[in-house]
Design goal:
Layout: H1 11-25, H2 40-54, H3 56-59, H4 69-92, H5 103-119, H6 121-138, H7 145-151, H8 153-169, H9 173-187, E1 190-191, E2 196-197, E3 202-203, E4 210-211, E5 216-217, E6 222-223, E7 228-230, E8 251-252, E9 257-258, E10 263-265, E11 269-270, E12 275-276, E13 281-282, E14 291-293, E15 296-297
Parallel strand pairs: 1-4, 2-5, 3-6, 4-7, 5-8, 6-9, 7-10, 8-11, 9-12, 10-13, 12-14
Antiparallel strand pairs: 14-15
Organism: Paraburkholderia megapolitana
GO molecular function: serine O-acetyltransferase activity
Protein name: serine O-acetyltransferase
C-alpha cells in the first residue's frame, strides 16, 4: 500500500467559508468597495528616494561630486514625487469628501498635494538637521554626524515622522500613517503623524517610545527609551463610540528631558526646562523648572492642581 497522501485539502469548502466570512459574517472591506490600496513597497521606495534627496552624500549614490549632486537630487525627486503622487491618489480615495470625486479630479488633487509637499522638503531637511545636531550634542557616545545618520533609530524614526507629518497636514492621513508605521516596525518607536514636534528633538535609544496623535513637543526636548506620551482616557458619544480628534495627549514645553520608562498621560503640560525621572507615572501638569522623580515634585514646587 502506498503511504503517499491524497492531497485532498477540501479546498472547495474552505474557499466557500472564506467567501462567507468576507461577504457576510466578518466584513473588513471599505464601505465604498475600494480595491486599489496604497502599496507598502511603493511607500518604502518613496521614503528611500526622499531620504536620498535630502541627504544625498549619505543615502544617495556613492560617486556623487559637487558637479553631479544637483542633477542626482533633481532626478531622484522627479521620480520619487511621481510615485508619491500615485500613492496620494490612492490614499485620498478613503476620505469621505472624495468618495464621489472623479478619477481625473483626484489625480489632479494628488499632483497638487505632491507638488506642495515637494516645496516643504527644504524646511523638513532643516528640522532633521536640528534633530541630528541635538543627537550629536546630547549623546557622548556619538562619534560624528555620519554615525548618527546611518545608525541612530531615533533619527530614522524622525525622518519618517517629519515627512509623514507634512503629508498629514496636507490632508493625506492614511499615507502619513503608513509612513510612520513602517518606521515603527523597524525601530520600535511609535509616533503618530499628527504629533507636533518642534526642532532639535532627540530620542536616545528609542525602543518602546510612544507619542500620541495630539501631543505637542517644543524645542530641544530629549526623551529616552520606553517613554510614553499617551492619553489618559477616551471620550465616547451616546452610542459608546470613541470621539475622534480630541486633544488628549501631553504638551511638552521647550528644554524638557524625560528619562527612560516615564509615562505621561492626558492633556497635561510639562513646563519648560523640567526633568521627568525614569519610570515616573504622571497624570497632572508640572510648572516650568520642575524636577519630578517617582512620587514627588522636588523643591516644593506645586502642580497646577494644587498638590505637591
Amino acid at each position: 500500500m502506498s503511504n503517499v497522501p491524497s492531497h485532498n485539502w477540501g479546498l472547495e469548502q474552505i474557499v466557500a467559508d472564506l467567501r462567507a466570512s468576507r461577504e457576510q459574517l466578518h466584513r473588513t472591506r471599505h464601505p465604498l468597495g475600494i480595491r486599489e490600496l496604497p502599496s507598502r513597497d511603493a511607500v518604502i521606495n518613496i521614503v528611500g528616494g526622499l531620504r536620498a534627496a535630502l541627504f544625498p552624500t549619505h543615502y544617495g549614490a556613492a560617486d556623487l561630486t559637487d558637479e553631479s549632486v544637483d542633477y542626482y537630487v533633481g532626478h531622484t525627486l522627479e521620480s520619487t514625487l511621481r510615485l508619491l503622487s500615485e500613492q496620494i491618489r490612492r490614499a485620498l480615495r478613503f476620505l469621505p469628501e472624495h468618495a464621489q470625486t472623479s478619477d481625473e479630479a483626484l489625480s489632479i488633487r494628488a499632483f497638487d498635494v505632491a507638488r506642495e509637499f515637494g516645496t516643504q522638503l527644504p524646511g523638513i531637511r532643516a528640522l532633521l538637521v536640528s534633530d541630528i545636531q541635538a543627537a550629536f550634542a546630547g549623546d557622548p557616545a556619538a562619534q560624528h554626524i555620519t554615525e548618527i545618520l546611518l545608525c541612530y533609530p531615533g533619527v530614522w524614526a524622525m525622518t519618517h515622522h517629519r515627512l509623514a507629518h507634512a503629508l498629514h497636514r496636507l490632508g493625506v492621513p492614511l499615507l502619513a500613517r503608513f509612513i510612520n508605521e513602517i518606521a515603527h516596525s523597524a525601530t520600535g518607536i511609535d509616533i503618530h503623524p499628527g504629533a507636533q514636534i518642534d526642532s532639535s528633538f532627540f530620542i536616545d535609544h528609542g525602543t518602546g517610545v510612544v507619542i500620541g496623535e495630539t501631543a505637542v513637543i517644543g524645542q530641544r526636548v530629549r526623551v529616552y527609551q520606553a517613554v510614553t506620551l499617551g492619553a489618559k482616557s477616551f471620550a465616547a458619544d451616546l452610542d459608546g463610540a470613541l470621539v475622534k480628534g480630541n486633544a488628549r495627549h501631553p504638551i511638552v514645553e521647550d528644554d524638557v528631558v524625560i528619562y527612560a520608562g516615564a509615562t505621561i498621560l492626558g492633556r497635561v503640560t510639562i513646563g519648560r526646562g523640567s526633568v521627568i525621572g525614569g519610570n515616573v507615572w504622571l497624570t497632572h501638569s508640572v510648572p516650568p523648572g520642575s524636577s519630578v522623580s517617582q512620587g514627588k515634585v522636588r523643591e516644593g514646587e506645586r502642580t497646577d492642581d494644587g498638590k505637591h
